[in-house]
Write a structure and sequence with these properties.
This is MarR family winged helix-turn-helix transcriptional regulator. The chain has 7 helices and 5 strands. With 215 residues, it is mainly alpha-helical. The protein starts with 6 loop residues before the first strand and ends with a helix.
């Protein structure tokens, strides 16, 4: 677990526990990492394609569906409907996206990429892969797999926590949805667990150094 307090040296050379800091909490670090990642991606796509990060997300989501409702795109991109509408309008004006009549609901429209939009998507996806590979350079493939597995479980836990908060539940009484990993006599499983533990330690140290430099 990420430590909530750190040891600091006093004037007499002794060490004592520093006051707890939000900077050491998992939620705080995730927020910082997400903001840094978004800023890098925004600069990257703006410079190379003159597209904002939300525009790239909308393009990618639409490409994945072929044709899709505006409501689904806005939800998948995690954008407010009013902002998503402006993003879509900008892409339509640039000839990247087009609106179609929704045959199953006359009150809504379907979105799909134009031929130009498909070419833009191919270029955007190639750039996303390059950025993804760059961010993974410090890690072994097993570490990346472990981290992606961690993120999947974290997303599920965030969804459960959101529901608990909305229903007025008590966070302190919440029980973990995932049981602890049982002990195993298998050398391969033991090695995998050790790898995951080392990866978690490396990730913690790396984030700490990076956020300290950013602060």
């Amino acid at each position: 677990m990420l430590q909530q307090g750190i040891c600091v040296a006093t004037a007499k050379g002794k060490r004592k526990e520093a006051p707890p800091s939000f900077r050491n909490l998992l939620t705080f670090r995730l927020h910082r990492v997400a903001r840094i990642s978004e800023r890098i991606s925004e600069q990257y796509y703006r410079k190379q394609l003159n597209l904002s990060l939300p525009e790239c997300r909308v393009i990618g989501i639409t490409a994945g569906y072929g044709s899709v409702s505006f409501k689904r795109v806005a939800a998948a991109a995690n954008l407010e409907k009013s902002y998503a509408s402006r993003v879509v309008s900008a892409l339509v004006e640039r000839g990247i996206m087009e609106k179609l009549v929704n045959p199953s609901d006359s009150r809504s429209v379907l979105l799909q990429l134009t031929e130009q939009g498909k070419a833009v998507h191919a270029e955007t996806f190639a750039m996303a892969l390059a950025l993804n590979d760059l961010l993974q350079l410090p890690f072994a493939s097993a570490q990346v797999d472990a981290f992606l597995s961690f993120l999947t479980t974290l997303e599920q836990q965030l969804d459960r926590t959101s529901g608990l908060i909305e229903s007025g539940g008590d966070l302190a009484s919440a029980t973990p949805a995932v049981a602890p990993m049982p002990e195993s006599d298998s050398p391969e499983e033991a090695r995998s667990f050790e790898l995951d533990r080392n990866f978690a330690r490396q990730l913690h140290d790396m984030l700490g150094k990076y956020l300290a430099a950013e602060g």
